[in-house]
Amino acid sequence: MVDRSKAFGWAANDESGVLSPFHFSRRENGENDVTVKILFCGVCHSDLHTIKNHWGISRYPIVPGHEIVGIATKVGKNVTKFKEGDRVGVGVIIGSCESCESCNQDLENYCPEVVFTYNSRSSDRTRNQGGYSDVIVVDHRFVLSIPDGLPSDAGAPLLCAGITVYSPMKYYGMTEESGKHLGVNGLGGLGHIAVKIGKAFGLRVTVISRSSDKESEAIDRLGADSFLVTTDSQKMKDAVGTMDFIIDTVSAEHALLPLFSLLKVSGKLVTLGLPEKSLELPMFPLVLGRKMVGGSQIGGMKETQEMLEFCAKHNIVADIELIKMSDINSAMDRLAKSDVRYRFVIDVANSLVTESSAEILEEHVDHGVSITSRF
Q1: Where is the Enoyl reductase (ER) domain (predicted)?
Q2: CA atoms within 13 A on the CB side of 10
């Protein structure tokens, strides 16, 4: 039987996705483990999809969160890479088989037995809960070092959003020659980081969007070279066949045909968003233009550490709105409406600790939200 220790966070208990205070347990720190006191946790669009069961795979109760930065408070006897007091990160995955072809290629994220940080089970069948909580215990092989100079709060979203855009840039050859033209479809949590990383790789970056609302900030603040509004038929016509690559970050249902038209011959469209409904894939522009469409999801542990070092070197962080844990439900409502510039991050250490159980109980009973315990 695995020894357990108490933990506290906020969980969704059903498809309403409403998060409320939740007592649960973590395993005790093992010989290969690192125990992390959580300081900050980013709010990913996947968190929203999961708590509302948009993908049909949710198992409640769920403590979301896989963009975790904290302090190592305990390390196992076999752990040499980390010590108590180190600033560390935990991303989307916390385990894999470590012996398959993908794992042997440092692609643990594609392992058939990959273990996700939340909404999953470990090998001992215990449920894994994420970073909207005070503490997490993780195998050291899935813990990352946060480089000096990378802030804990604005650096947290890099653990999902950052690696999600970095990995396809490397794999699909976007970094091999500077000056190539990259289109970034959608300027949200993923898109704004894609602009920053693309520019750091020497790419010419155009943001593609349905409206001009974010044009000035895309160019003046994020550093994009140009901005293309898809509803402007003349500008879309002028942009036909001008892009070498497009990273599509949009997670809502949308047409792919207009994006294919923007690509040069042999251009590549890489999709990162996960819409609830399947998208139509037109064959004619692919065949007649020798164009490619591919996908990508996060990266392995080695590449994720490489990405963190790259971002620290180039001063790349997410643009964030820091929130308290008690603000999470309103933040989720805003996230569903794309009303955030550009990533919510929860100040876990300063908002979970300062709210006593009595205060939480009084506040949330008044709002009809129940407090749940699972041990």
Answers
A1: 17-346
A2: 27
The helix/strand/coil state of 257 is: helix
pLDDT at 348 (0 to 100): 97
User: Partners of 8 in the beta sheet?
Assistant: 23
Helix, strand, coil % over all residues of the chain, rounded to 5: 30, 25, 40
Tokens describing residue 188? 């949200």
Confidence at residue 356, expressed as pLDDT on a 0 to 100 scale: 42
Taking a C-beta distance cutoff of 8 angstroms, is the pair 65, 92 a contact?
A: no
Task: Measure the CA–CA gap between 295 and 228, rounded to whole angstroms.
Answer: 23
Secondary structure string (H, E, C) spanning 209-233:
ECCCCCHHHHHHHCCCCEEEECCCH
Sign of CA dihedral 299, 183, 203, 319: negative
Question: Mean pLDDT by 10-residue block, N- to C-terminus, for the chain (375 residues)?
Answer: 80 97 94 97 95 94 98 97 97 96 97 96 86 97 97 98 97 92 96 97 96 93 96 95 96 87 96 83 89 94 98 97 97 94 96 55 40 35
What does the DSSP assignment read for 148-194? TTS-HHHHGGGGTHHHHHHHHHHHTTTTSSTT-EEEEE--SHHHHHH
Q: Which pLDDT score, from 0 to 100, does residue 251 have?
A: 81
CA distance 132 to 120: 15
11: its two tokens: 């969980």
What is the pLDDT, as a whole number, of residue 180? 96
- Rounded (10°) angle between helices 189-200 and 161-171: 50
CB atoms within 10 A of CB 2: 12
Cα–Cα distance for residue pair 248/270, rounded to 1 Å: 6
Q: What pLDDT sits at residue 370?
A: 37
131: nearest Cα among 37, 1, 246: 37
Q: Which helix H or strand E contains 29, and what residues bound it?
A: none
Identify the pLDDT of residue 374.
Answer: 35
**CA torsion through residues 33, 39, 45, 48, sign:** positive
Contact 271, 293 (CB under 8 A): yes
Q: Are 375 and 25 in contact (CB under 8 A)?
A: yes
Return d(Cα 179, Cα 155) in angstroms, integer: 27
